[in-house]
Every structure is written in structure tokens, then in C-alpha cells.
Amino acid sequence: xxxxxxxxxxxxxxxxxxxxxxxxxxxxxxxxxxxxxxxxxxxxxxxxxxxxxxxxxxxxxxxxxxxxxxxxxxxxxxxxxxxxxxxxxxxxxxxxxxxxxxxxxxxxxxxxxxxxxxxxxxxxxxxxxxxxxxxxxxxxxxxxxxxxxxxxxxxxxxxxxxxxxxxxxxxxxxxxxxxxxxxxxxxxxxxxxxxxxxxxxxxxxxxxxxxxxxxxxxxxxxxxxxxxxxxxxxxxxxxxxxxxxxxxxxxxxxxxxxxxxxxxxxxxxxxxxxxxxxxxxxxxxxxxxxxxxxxxxxx
Length: 299
Fold this sequence. Notes:
This protein is an all-alpha fold and about 300 residues long. Helices cover about 65% and strands about 0% of the residues.
């Protein structure tokens, strides 16, 4: 089993994922009951803030107004939990930035992205706001929405020290295998791979897990090879992650205990953590469960 086997076609697929960050795609589909009221192309972030100040609750239909208010309540809770006690005016600015994004009510993508960064919320937090106000966005749709946000928001400087190590590992691979890429393509590739590596399928059923990968044109092996770049923690943590990336399910108690013991035994025999992971992944992929799983994917 090859440790980092990320095929060339994967990079091409990742680069094509820019379509996911189009604010008229997944986002509008998730909020198809919300009709945007304004379409203004702005020239600066200050202009953008001035324009979103024009969002008028009174002009919304009742459903949109309820969603707006529920979103405001949730975003306030998130900031309070982070000890960020913003004034009512500042909260209104922030909810309007969020609203402009999810309703695609602005054509200036750069200002929208700057606005999202201004919110200082993680993709998971933004998804939690959206799903609280719009419970229909679940499963595969929620993960794809989070993926689009992660692509937009990832910045190495904002990552934890531990995550920076993983991010740098991905960048090292991209630079080694694609030395013909310019700096923009390298950064785009690294950010997209990083974002895919953050996909969390634990809250999805099997169908949604398969749908997420099919939607972004990743076969199961390619997804696993990306995830391999990000494994960390104790053997217990690593085995849990291996279950999620190989079998696309949570580990069962008996199976997890067995594979952790295999990891422990291999390391006692002198194998490195990476070699032990490779061996466990290889053995798990010989199981009938994995073979049956592979057959469910698009060819």
C-alpha cells in the first residue's frame, strides 16, 4: 500500500471544485425559499458594508424574516459562547454579512469572502447557523456547504500549530508532485485538499457519505489518500479515523479494540506509526465490507 498515493487526476478534480464556491450554487439551493432583494456590485469592503446596511426586514416575506431572526439568535449564541459580547449594532452588521452570503444578494465575490472572514466564524459554526434556521440542509448538502466555506476561509495563519503541520505536509506534497504549478495554483490546490480533508461524515448516513464523495467526483481510495495526510492522535484516535475513511462508518467497540491491538503490536515490533497505519489500512481493505462498499460508488 502506497502511503501518499494521490493521483494526478485528483488535483484536476480539486481545481474544478472552484464551482462549489460560487455563491449562486449550493448556497442558493439550500435557501431556495429566500428571495434576494438587492443585487449590487460593490467596489470596496466599506461600500459592501454600506450596502448590506440596506437589508430591510420589513421588505421580507414572513418566512425569510423568521429565518433571519433565527439566524441572528444563533449567531449571537455562538459569539457569546466565545466571550465576544458585541453591541446590537455590531451584531446587526455581522448577521447582514451572513445574510448577504447565503442569499447571494451581492455579485462582488471578493467582498463577500472578506465579509465571511470578518465574521471570524469557522465553517462548522456557519453551518450550524444555517441548519438551525433551515433544518432542510442536512447530510450531504450540509457537508458540501461546509466544504465550500472551508475553501473560501482557510488561511494557514489562522490554523492551530497542530493543523499548520498538516497543512504544510499537504503543501509539501503538492509542490513535489506538481512543480509546474504557479503559486496561485499551488495555494488553490493546497486549500482544496485541506478542505476536503476536513470533511466530517460522522453525522451522515451511508448514502449521504457516498453522495458527498460522488458529488465532488472523488472515489473512495482518493478520499482515503487525502485523509491519510491528516491522521493524528493516539492509536485509539487513529483507528477511529481509519474506520471513518476506509469503511465510511463509526467504529464498533469490538472491531476498534482489535485494530488498536494490531497497531500496538506492529509498533512494538519496531514499525513506525505511518507504517503501522499503512498496514492496518491495507488489512482492513481486504475485508468483504470494504469490497461491498466500493461497489456502491459511481465508476
